[in-house]
Amino acid sequence: MNIKKTLIAGIATATILASVALPAFADNTKEITYVNSPWTCPTGAQPNNNAAGFVNVNLQNGNINGEFSVKGGQVNETYQVYITTQNCGTVEVVGTLTTNGQGNGNVHFTVPQIAGATSYDVYAWNHNFTQYIAAHAVSN
């Protein structure tokens, strides 16, 4: 077999394998989270000087897959993480995270997509509701 045919066969095989082996994922939406920033249901958290991590959300197959990450939060603190529709019509607890000795922690969540919602707010409250960490509204 000559080199030209081998290269063409190799490229064709690689193209087919890539299209079969790599699942198609929805686009990710990543937003910075802020500590105790002005927050409303339609817009989510407003940026302030207290960035505290991020939330990463991707919609796939009727589910909301997300990661809520706290960086520099309260040390050894437990946060309850919530997701709500843009109008606060539906609020769901999606998980709990506990920060380490540096105030860092993560929680992954998967919940069914909320029917009719076009954007979501993802936020967390500490155990005694004295601190919240929230992101700007995440759109799908």
Describe the structure.
With 140 residues, this protein is mainly β. It is built from 1 helix and 11 strands; from the N terminus they run αβββββββββββ. It has one helix spanning 3-21; strands at residues 28-35, 39-40, 44-45, 51-60, 63-70, 78-85, 91-98, 105-112, 119-126, 132-135, 138-139. The longest helix is centred in the first third of the chain and has 19 residues, at 3-21.
Quick rundown:
The protein has 140 residues and is mainly β.
Number of domains: 1
Task: Tell me the number of helical segments per DSSP (H or I, 4 or more residues long).
Answer: 1
Low-confidence stretches: 5-25
Outline: globular
The helical percent reads: 10-25%
In total, the number of strands is 11
What is the CATH superfamily label?
Answer: Superoxide dismutase, copper/zinc binding domain
SS content category: mainly beta
Q: How many strands, which pairing sense, and closed or not: the largest β-sheet?
A: 9 strands, antiparallel
Terminal residue distance: 50 Å
Strand percentage, roughly?
A: over 45%
The value of Rg in angstroms is: 20 Å
CATH class: Mainly Beta
